[in-house]
Amino acid sequence: MSVIVLVGGSFLGAWAWERVTPVLAASGHDVHPLTLTGFGDRAHLGSEATTLTTHAHDIRAAIEVAGLRDVVLVAHSYGGAPATVAAAAIPGRIARLIYVAAVLPQAGRTLFDIAPPGVEEAIMNTVVDGWIPVMSDEIIDANFGAHGLTPQDRGWFRARAAGQPVNTYRDPAPADLGAVEGLPRTFIACTGDPRRAGRSARPRAGHPRRRTLAYDHQASGAGPPDRQGGAGLMRPYRVEVPQACLDDLAERLARTRFTRSLPGRGHGVPSERVRRLVERWREAFDWRAQEAAVNAHPQFVTDIDGVDVHFLHVRSPRPGAFPLVLTHGWPMSVVEYLSVIGLLGDEFDLVIPSIPGFGFSGTPREAGWNRRRTAGAWAELMRRLGYERYGVHGNDVGALISLELGRLDPRNVTGVHVTQLFSLPSGDPGELTVLGPGDLAKVRTMQRFLDERGAYLKLQSTQPQTLAHALADSPAGQLAWNLQLFGESVDDDYILANATIHWVTDSAGSAALSGYHGNEQPPGPTSFPLGVACFAGDFFPTVRALAERDHTAIVHWSAFDRGGHHAAQEAPELLAGDIRAFFAARR
């Protein structure tokens, strides 16, 4: 059994663990709940002794004096800061750190340096309506009052919750916390509203109910990490492509054997364009800058149905913000939506997953990961994140996945917003006779795309493995294949970022498999609320009359005179505004 040391949050003594301690002890664990200096007693409340340095010493001394080794150090809320500092000083005595909705310190900085609006809590110690939840009236009455604190103290606690300075938050962490990085860590985020203790579990209007989430040790790399810890765990993740992989990429690009141009036009991606972008990829493109842009946002990986699903989870600073899933297309990645995070992040909790087989999600180990199964994974992901009502947006393949998610989870999905509906003529001549000149022109554009540029659809839906052999070996080939869907209006570095992700993760074949293989025609029209944003330059336009044949509840339709298939890049402000407009009445 384990040696467990329990460290409470701000102003909480060992009694804060009084329900947990007997349960752990009954299981045979050696349990040591701690009271930090100045916490748990009124005499030293907020005194000069109540500092991060003192509290780290309290934890270290308790472990060393008792001769404890292989300690599982569990910390809640503020306790995460001194626990981290203590563990960095005595890493040889710590077997694992477990953070429960805990604040993590930053080397050399005070907690006020990272205080609201921007406390860097690795897990979501959510501020609800201006209150840090642990400081609710019910908690103060039920717990603090029972331990010698009078009702007059409530004003002091309320001031603390509002961000008034206390010494624990003024004291800087040590400059070196690196020893903690080598320790196994588990992050558990309890994101419910504690002020509802003892009340009905029904969430307040506009406040999605949250559940307890578990995050295992941080992982990073070029591709998805090996699975650790089992289903349900959310592991923090960073994109860190090994330099050796980037060096290999550069060497391969330098040895590119460019094909000669074919006579005439319309035979595919021009050689000149491939040459120009390969040269930029080699000489000017900065992958590390792209990597940093992704890593600027919280990322996690969780095992769903046997596949590691990677996702960005960008929480709004607004309490109770509406959750929104954004699903990228092919040949894109989560990079597709980096441009709209700043435009949407004030109103929405954004969940931006990598489709299984794409980028930093895992490669499916069995057949059957089509769009419907991916939609099922998204529904499970939102359930694990504790969101009971949420919205959905998608582009390209992401639009098709979003429609499936609306079909699969109609009780929780309040609406689906897409940038295309791939409703083709059925073959009935009478269907086209009712269309006006504008819609007929769109039908001709659709047909021309399928006739002249649609070969990739057939190949990826039938022979993804054959394709993968070529693209895995040639980054220039991967780039050229991707360029089929990228016009000149899209930024070169955006194109190269997606090509890099596809190549370093070897996901050409698996992305084709997940995006295009094994999909069946839906059984009938959809009936959930649906919003459509049409952009003038989209090479696959949506015809409303055909769309209404396949979708019976189109309640929002916008047509923009600019932008195209890659709206998040070409017209991000228009896209974000349309998403906000559609979900304004569906939160």
The count of β-strands is 16
Under the CATH scheme, the architecture of the domain at 3-202 is: 3-Layer(aba) Sandwich
Nearest-angstrom radius of gyration?
27 Å
- Structural shape: globular
Q: Estimate percent helicity.
A: 25-40%
Structural class: alpha/beta
CATH topology of the domain at 3-202: Rossmann fold
Q: In this structure, how is the largest beta sheet organized?
A: 10 strands, mixed
Q: First CA to last CA: what distance? A: 47 Å
Q: Order the strands across the largest sheet as they lie in space.
A: 7-8-9-10-12-11-13-14-15-16
At the first level of CATH, the class of the domain at 3-202 is Alpha Beta
How many helices? The count is 22
Q: Mean pLDDT across all residues, rounded?
A: 82
Give a verbal description of the structure.
The chain has 587 residues and is of the alpha/beta class. The protein has a domain at 3-202: Alpha/Beta hydrolase fold, catalytic domain (Rossmann fold, 3-Layer(aba) Sandwich), CATH 3.40.50. It is built from 22 helices and 16 strands. The strands form two sheets. Strands 7-8-9-10-12-11-13-14-15-16 form a ten-stranded mixed β-sheet, sandwiched between helices. Strands 2-1-3-4-5-6 form a six-stranded mixed β-sheet, with helices on both faces. Strand 11 (322-327), helix 10 and strand 12 (348-353) form a beta-alpha-beta unit. The protein is globular. It starts with a strand and ends with a helix.
Task: Describe the secondary structure blueprint for this structure.
Layout: E1 3-7, H1 20-26, E2 30-34, H2 52-65, E3 71-76, H3 80-89, E4 94-100, H4 137-144, H5 154-161, H6 167-170, E5 185-190, E6 212-215, E7 219-221, E8 234-239, H7 243-254, H8 271-283, H9 287-295, E9 299-304, E10 307-314, E11 322-327, H10 338-344, E12 348-353, H11 371-384, E13 390-394, H12 397-408, E14 413-418, H13 429-433, H14 437-453, H15 455-462, H16 464-473, H17 475-482, H18 492-504, H19 508-516, E15 530-537, H20 544-550, E16 554-564, H21 567-570, H22 572-583
Helix pairs in contact: 2-3, 10-22, 11-12, 15-19, 16-17, 16-19, 17-18
